[in-house]
Specification:
four-stranded mixed β-sheet, metalloendopeptidase activity, signal, 29 strands, about 675 residues, alpha+beta, metal ion binding, about 20% helix
């Protein structure tokens, strides 16, 4: 909370204590994935044990997967052979899509966890897998899943004569061959198909090097979890996890991947379940398909093919917009972004982050300025402000490998309905923007769940918004209620939200500058609500207006877009059993509202945008105190701005903040 004080030195100290999370990190997914060799069965083999042993496969590094346009041409020329293979897979696959079965496997060296750490990990993994399985369906693998061996590792010589019967098979074994790995996990032989040596190019006589493993039943994706203090964990500040996929099927769908969880993060006293689940979902979406190394293997199943069966390659799913920014231009993604921004602009592909892009402008994250709050943005925040959004699910659908339950998508609050130019560098510094801010003052995060401070970071490229404070910023946590007398009348309860205000009790000399303050609110209709300040009755707060409160000097500003819009997001709860990723099935009309000032119901609230024209001020008498409050706020910003700029920081994917495990 903001405690009023006439002493500038004390005010500066409070600002220091209330600063935003400043620990920084960087997302290492693309870097890690680039170092991993991805093993893919070639035509004539499948990833199921039912297919029998066939040791031929193609192995790609991430760089090879996206090297040049000529690779795409060669793939196109081989479409007829892939079509035949797809028909074979269609006969083996089940006819209907079903929720993806994710099998988690932990190597023995990762099992030396304390009971508390093990329980934390099991709970987070179970929650993560449950969420992802409820969102994605695949054509299930009919038998036990068996991964392929890397022919370039176990073989010294490969038959390359295309007319030979044993073309692309091993002709001479590598005596130093030991094992297969997925990132830094050794894959058990039980999970792998066998391999053999064919000593003559046209003879079926062979020497078996390794037998088929037993495989994994009821598995469509194998997730290796490695809990360790790796070198990356030690050199990247606050890193909690990183990941990569290592095996794919003939259609390009990832079959196996590894998530490395930094062991020390499980031991932190400030460990949070919802933050860990958020990170694991982010990493799992990467390895399942939201990866720049996989863009060229996405399948076009939009019109004529069911997902997962014989869909042709998309080719290039990205292109440059008029400003040179790389965007994804697949059907579902374009439509999702048009709906989100309320625009019919055909140029609205979903933008990829430009600051972590490769030489082609490709990134495995959404552009933060435009899709902040998405689970796949390059910067993640407090879990209560992050959504599994329509754009991300549309992208996973457009991989062609999954049927996606997009009805479970959460409404992305950031930029909703703001038009095609939202988030552009030319518009984000507009002082009238609802989402962006200027200067470095204190205010409210755009969800109105948290107090915040106007800050930027490298991913925002100079654009600013109110980021949640690190200490006691949550209005909805009762434990944040101060024990001392609060002259601004704040109330911290589950129904409380952040409001811009300069209220102070009339019987005191304390005066408060305009900033974020926590007051109770209660919905009475769509975009209509009451508010309650400490020791007052419920008051109507017309959106777009500022109201006076009996017994207080100053005003409360009533936000007009977020509060009481729809009910697809629940009020955050302290219990880890109510994560930010649960999706409510009720609609706004299902909520029973009352205008009575003392009702006790606690309606669930969401934060969808609604484009309304500003309502007129209720009374002209609020103009003078508003202007005085703004002048006071400006003076405060000028006085402490220079000292406070040094504290500006941001939460990144893989970064840990003082009280929040980051990505």
């Amino acid at each position: 909370m903001l405690s009023p004080s006439p002493h500038p030195s004390l005010l500066l100290l409070l600002l220091l204590l209330l600063r935003l999370q400043s620990a920084c990190g960087r997302c290492v997914f693309d870097e890690v994935q680039r170092s991993v060799r991805v093993v893919t069965p070639s035509a004539g083999s499948t990833s199921s044990k039912n297919s029998g042993m066939d040791d031929s496969q193609t192995v790609f590094t991430a760089a090879e997967q996206a090297r040049s346009f000529h690779q795409h041409i060669r793939q196109t020329r081989g479409a007829s052979r892939q079509c035949l293979q797809s028909q074979r897979e269609m006969r083996q696959a089940t006819t209907d899509m079903a929720p993806i079965r994710i099998h988690t496997w932990i190597p023995q060296e990762s099992l030396t966890l304390s009971e508390v750490d093990r329980e934390r990990l099991e709970s987070a993994i179970k929650h993560t897998v449950s969420i992802v399985s409820s969102l994605l369906s695949v054509r299930r693998i009919p038998g036990p899943l068996l991964l392929s061996r890397d022919i370039n590792k176990y073989c010294k010589f490969i038959w390359r004569n295309t007319s030979a019967a044993n073309y692309n098979r091993c002709g001479r074994a590598n005596g130093s061959y030991r094992d297969e790995t997925c990132l830094d996990v050794v894959i058990p032989d039980e999970h792998l198909r066998g391999c053999a040596v064919f000593h003559h190019p046209d003879s079926d006589v062979r020497t078996e090097l390794r037998r088929d493993g037993v495989g994994l039943d009821d598995t469509d994706f194998l997730l290796y979890l490695h809990i360790q203090n790796s070198h990356r964990c030690s050199i990247e500040p606050g890193m909690l996890a990183y990941a990569a996929h290592c095996q794919a099927d003939t259609q390009g769908r990832p079959l196996a991947g590894t998530v490395v969880i930094c062991r020390e993060q499980l031991r932190q006293e400030r460990y949070r379940h919802d933050t860990t689940v958020q990170i694991l979902i982010h990493e799992l979406f990467h390895v399942l398909g939201f990866s720049r190394t996989l863009f060229r293997t996405w399948r076009d199943c939009y019109q004529t093919h069911p997902a997962g069966v014989g869909c042709p390659l998309h080719g290039w799913v990205t292109n440059l917009d008029d400003t040179g920014h790389v965007r994804i231009y697949t059907q579902s993604v374009v439509r999702a972004l048009q709906e989100h921004l309320n625009s019919t602009d055909h140029r609205l592909g979903a933008p990829l982050e430009n600051l972590d892009a490769d030489f082609r402008g490709l990134s495995s994250h959404w552009e933060a300025r435009i899709l902040l709050g998405s689970i796949m943005a390059a910067t993640l925040g407090e879990p209560s402000t992050v959504q599994i959004d329509q754009m991300t699910l549309a992208a996973l659908q457009d991989t062609g490998w999954y049927s996606v339950n997009r009805s479970r998508a959460q409404s992305l609050v950031w930029g909703q309905g703001e038009g095609a130019l939202f988030g552009s560098l030319s518009t984000c510094n507009d002082s009238t923007s609802f989402y962006f801010c200027t200067g470095s003052g204190l205010g409210c995060h755009y969800h109105h769940l948290h107090k915040g401070e106007c800050q930027s970071d490298p991913y925002l490229e100079g654009c600013r918004f109110y980021k949640p404070l690190a200490n006691a910023s949550e209005c909805w946590k009762e434990e944040n209620q101060p024990e001392s007398v609060d002259w601004s009348g704040e109330i911290y309860q589950s129904e409380s939200r952040c409001f811009f205000s300069n209220l102070s009790r009339e019987n005191t000399t304390h005066r408060v500058s305009v900033a974020g303050h926590c007051y109770r609110h209660r919905c009475t209709g769509r975009h209509r609500y009451l508010i309650q300040v400490l020791d007052t009755d419920w008051l109507d707060c017309p959106p777009g207006s500022a109201i006076e409160v009996p017994g207080y000097a100053g005003v409360v500003f009533c936000p007009e877009k977020i509060l009481c819009s729809q009910t697809d997001h629940a009020t955050p709860l302290n219990s880890q059993d109510h994560g930010i990723f649960s999706v409510l099935g009720s609609s706004f009309a299902d909520v029973n509202y009352s205008h009575a000032p003392h009702i006790t119901a606690k309606p669930n609230l969401t934060f969808d945008m609604d484009l309304l024209s500003p309502e007129p001020w209720e009374s002209a008498k609020v103009i003078v105190p508003i202007l005085l409050a703004l002048a006071s706020a400006l003076s405060l910003i000028i006085a402490v701005g220079a000292a406070y700029k040094a504290l500006h920081g941001g939460v990144r994917v893989h970064a840990e903040a003082p009280d929040l495990l980051g990505l």
